[in-house]
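Page 42, continued from yesterday. The earlier attempt failed because a stray header line got pasted into the input along with the sequence. Redoing it now with the clean sequence only.
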Amino acid sequence: MRKERGGKLLMQEVARGILIPFLGTTIGAAFVFFLKKELNVVLQKALAGFAAGVMVAASIWSLLIPAMEQSAELGKFAFLPALVGFWIGILFLLFLDHIIPHLHANSEVAEGPKSKLKKTTMLILAVTLHNIPEGMAVGVIYAGWMSGEAKITMMGALALSIGIAIQNLPEGAIISMPLRAEGASKKRAFLYGTLSGVVEPIGALLTILAAYFIIPLLPYLLSFAAGAMMYVVVEELVPEMAEGEHSDIGTILFAVGFTLMMSLDVALG
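This time it went through. C-alpha cells are written below.
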C-alpha cells in the first residue's frame, strides 16, 4: 500500500513538473485578452534577454554539471559524455533548423526550406522548434531524479521547470498577439498561442520514457538537452536581444534571468 502511494506521489510530482512550463506558455498566450497592441520592441528585447539568461544558467547548473557528476567514475575524462551529448544536441537543432520552415519574431525573412506557409504558421513553427529542447530538458532531469542514479533532487528538477515556465511567458504572447492583430478572435489567438507549447509536455514525457529505460545514457541525454537549448540561445535569442537600439535592456535582463535561474537551482537543488 505504501509503495502504491509512493508511486502515485512520484507520478504526481512528475506530471506537475512537466506541465509547469506549459502553464507559462498558456499564461503568456492569455496576454491577448489584456493587451490591445503587439508587444513593443523594448519589451521583446527584455524578454528575449531574460529567456536567454534562464536557458544558459539551466544548461550549466541543471544539465551539464549533473551530467559530469554522474560520469565521475571516468575520472579526468568525466567531461566526455557531456561533450558528446552537447554536440549532438547542437547538431540536432541545426538539422531541424534547416528542414523546418519557420520565422522568428521581428523578422521578415523565413528560415529553412522555401514554403508558402502563412507568416503566423511559421511563427508557430519557430516557437515549436524553440520548445523542443526545453521539453526534453524537463523530461530528462525528471528522469534523472526518478532513477535515483543521478545527483538530481526533486527540488532541483522543479527549479528547472519553474525557470523554463518563466521564460515561456513571452512565447505564448509572440503567437497570440500577432494573430489578434491580423484579425483573429481573442479566443482563437489564445488557443493557437497555447497550442504552440503543447510540444513541451509531450517532448518531456517521451524523453522520460526513453531515459527511464536507458539510464546509462542519462549523462548524454542531459547534455544533449543543454546543447539544444544553447543552440536556441545563440541562434535566436541573443540576436533578437542585441540587434538595433535598446540592446542594453536585453543584456541586463540576460543577467537577471541567469542569476535567477542559478539561484533557483542552487537554493532548491
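Notes: The radius of gyration is 18 Å.
Reminder to self: strip header lines before submitting.
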